[in-house]
Fold this protein.
Amino acid sequence: MLFLHETEALVKAENLEKAKIVSTQFLQKIGTNALVEGNLKEYIQPSLEAAVWKDLNWDNIANEIKNVWIVKPNIITLHNWKVGTYFYFQKISIN
């Protein structure tokens, strides 16, 4: 129960990276837990991926999205990498 309160506090504080680490460690210790797995998969990870796009530095965005695609290769992450790279090259070609 303490773990759930800690994770909830981290999410409310928008410390999603730490919430992901704590949730992953919990799953490694305890094993499967539908609530924790669902929270990690349906909220924490997507929120981390969405947060990348808030950075206005397209070099950072393109690199981070590329790393997401390498870890989780699928059509969505490939598309995101393409979009991030496109805007990165648009920015550097203007400068």
